[in-house]
Predict the structure.
Amino acid sequence: MTAQRFTNGDRVKVAEITGRRHVRTPGYIQGRHGVIERFCGYFPNPEERSIGLTGLPKIALYRVRFSGADLFKELSSAVADSIDVEVFEHWLREVEDDI
Amino acid sequence: MTSEDNYSDNNVVSKQVHKHDHTPPADQGPVTQVQAIQIAMQELLIEKGLVCAEEIRETVELIDSITPSRGAEVVARAWLDPEFKSRLLHNGTAACLEMGIDLRPTPLVVVENTSLIHNIVVCTLCSCYPRMLLGLPPDWYKSTAYRSRIIIEPRVVLLEFGTNLNPELSIRVHDSTADMRYLVLPQRPNNTENFSLNQLTELVTRDCMIGVTLPKNSVTS
Amino acid sequence: MSAKRIGPHDVAGSVVDPVDTTAHELAGWEKRIDALYKLLADEKRCLFVVDEFRLAIESLGPDVYNTHSYYERWVLAIRDILIKKQIITSDELSQRVVDVLDREV
């Protein structure tokens, strides 16, 4: 397992990854920006475990907070104010503060 | 989903199982094709020695024995004991273990409703749910309608549960996509200062611990 | 909204149906498939893990996923895993299903 890359408050962008069979990153957050709410610990990689591998070494898992208005602004004015989603580290990209 | 929740913890809680002298409800009507597959698989697995009928019966009893009253006791204790509440919010797994509830290996995150924030739990991808605290999830929690809409229009969905939230509350939805499980710690209703632990526990419903309703005796603005 | 979806199970924002807030009493077969899942994936047997199970459900495809109930999907997913892992053969299962249905008549 590798040291966690992100800490609380870091701004991140969720990657858009296709071609994998089983992932736990729903489409609605892919390509979107959020903020690290907390580090959850290290867990086996579900993408590898789904195809019979061990999923080891464990990987870092975070809760990332998204703005509902940001994710769904074109859909609804009644959207949740914030949405917290668990995301594994290999899906997260650093975001420069001035973007 | 677990679904599809992570179930490998069943052995560690078996000591808490209450023995019930009952059999599962009989299945109504003719057996469907899918039900026939379930029966056929079960028979073949038993014949191959991979499971035994007794284990299946005991596991069904274990499933039946876990009810939302477990979660309600945790919430009521947090209402009465500020230090326990602090530990529960800091580390839900450890605080539940104090009460003899072993949630491993899925850590519990307890999210507190306040005068500013109302929390709601969903699993948009499947049905991840704090089964060790609340039992099996209800149909609606697993439904496409709930999973599809609770993020997009939570206030509208809550109205379908008869819950009319204060419009000034900020709504936060927790999507259980991976290894955490979530429990909402509702606000303690007013005018319950003299309530005992048991009386408080009675106010805590399953649905208010998921965030779609408020505890009994709550007054919405 | 984002139309990107990772599979038939990725439903956020996809439907507008009201939520049916009632719940049915689980039938015996529903509890038994829940129990079977739990046993087959436990530490003693570990015939598969939760992620393989989720992949099997997602791999049922949108038509099957959307036309079967929650526990029906569990039955079909576990069937697919047991056959794929050669724990049960497709032929013996088919024959047993016929036997079960005959018995019920």
Observations:
- DSSP finds five helices and no strands in chain C.
